[in-house]
Design brief:
Structural class: mainly beta
Strand content: 35-45%
Number of strands: 49
Largest sheet: 5 strands, antiparallel
Helix content: under 10%
Radius of gyration: 60 Å
Amino acid sequence: MFRKILAALGTLALAVGLSAIAVAAPASAHHTDLSGSAACAPAGGWDVTWTLVNSENLTATVTAATNTATPTSPIAVGMVLGANPAYGSANSVSTTYVQHVAASTAVTQAVSTTWTNGVKASKSATVTGFPTGCATADADATVMVTAATCIAPASLSYATHDFSTFTSGTADGTKGATSGSALTHYSVVATAATGHTFSSGLTTLTIEGDLDPQLSGASCVQAPGCIPNSSVSYSYDPLSNSGVITVADVTNSTHALCDPFWVTATSWKYVNATVWPQMLDVVQKLGPISAPGTYAYAAAVTCGQGDIYASDVAQPDPTATLDAPSNPFPEHFLHDMGFTGPNPTWVQQDAACASVKPTVTYELGACYQDGTAPNLQSSSTLTLVFDNSASTVPVTFSVPTALDVASSIQPTPSIVRTVPPGGTVKVHTTPIGNQGGSFDVLMDGVYTVTIPDAAITVQQFAGCLDAKPGDPSQTNETCVAGANVGGSITVGMETGLVYSIDGPGTAHDVSPVTVATTAGLPAGSYVVTVAAAPGYTLSGASAWPLTIKIISAVCGQLVTHPLVTPAAQMTDLTCVAAGSYTLDGNPGVVWAVNGVAASAGTYQVATASTVVVTATPLSPGYGFDTGIPNPSSWTFTFTKPALASCGTQLVTLAYTGVSSSLQLILAGGLVLIGVGGLLFARRYYRRA
């Protein structure tokens, strides 16, 4: 019995299992067929066609889909696929969707569906094959029409043209309506670039329309209006940090800008060898600028930065310092205003131009008698000289131990002075008398400038020194190479004295005189003055009037003299005397004897010989009388008489050819020799 029951239960279980298998087999076959293919699109690019096929005789709903951005018939969530009882046969039903793409890159589509019996399935497909030679429909060409106004007709301009060019139309890209009331028709043609088409799929596009003529009549009678900012222009020169703003008037205006504005030209100085920080230097404020005209602006830059600020709200007012761009002063430049002009409107110099070189020296005042001791002299004042002339930044000098005699505070505080770049300040302090003194000088710059401190020592005063000047001298103008050359004034340049020269007009003043001789001074009246230097007293004259005279009013002009007649004659040798020749003493003649220069006078000749005498004018201003050659020449032949003709006459030849003065000298010498011989002989015999 028990075996029969087990057999029956086994048979029942087998039947239930087979029935379950029969039901599950069809459910596991639910799916959606998905495929795609690409083809050239008529309007350019590619059309990808996706095909969906339901495998079941049940409806299915799309629950998810990807790549649905631009299909012609989108595959969207919620779409229903109808039942397909003929799946797998020629009568099978399919659904297609077209997706347009502009690039030939792989496209993937994925779809998830759920059937009415609750079965779910997903499918994806990728299209990689794209035909070549397809055009892209991304070409574009548009025109822009500017409406007619009371001052101009409507006009046409080519606005944009992507992947295309205008192949017909006006040359400059614009077309205006003709005058009068008639419309102007326009027709322009654009051609797509290779590989591109317009949205219509065509490679050409024709754009047509009409342009209205200029408006007229009562509608164009308008009330005067303000001047727009488009009428404002400016120039800018970065080298000088300057320029000119021009406000042009317009037709039928109120002669006033719609938006007045302010301009501030500014320059800053570096405080050390870096760009930041900067100190305010030059400020020029213009504004409000509200009417037609030209407005010049400038702010010279000296080792720093130049900025041209502008605002339509209020006058820009820069702060005393600028630590960084727009800090702490908010910078708004002229080029930010929207006017016509260059950009930028600022200039920045190399920070290497910054220099910090302060120095401190001292000067003693004039000498005076100290009442505490007879004849004792001292310096009446001590002056500290704070020199910042070699710096490009301000420097503060402090002398804690020196009293500031210029201060109104009692007792006087220490000396504190801030000296601007390029400046020098002198400060008087308490007299130091004879004892000398020493002062520490603290020097500080702004921001990060570090300056070494200094100390000056005033030597003990030894008393005033007496300085006596010599008399200056002068030379007159001279005539050199036909031109007047200025004269000169010479002074002694003694220690402790300072000379000055006051000339005819300030152009010839020299103060102080630094060289002994001041040359190149024109003719005129001068005054030389002298003063004692600190520590010296002046003894003697203190002023001298001097006059430099002109050498000649005709310098460079030829001066002519009366004509002269040169004369030369000879006396021949005789039995008892030498011969001679004489050259006259006319000042306009230059003589030469046998080619050697000679002076006027009489010359003796002792022996037979020939002498050639030549005369030439002294200078171009001299000339010989008419008929006398230039040069003139004489040949003198000296001959000795025969002895037979001389008889018993004594011929003195020992001194022939010697001048009378020389003869006297020779004779005197012979007398001295004779006297000497007699004295020697007498002394000799006396000894014997």
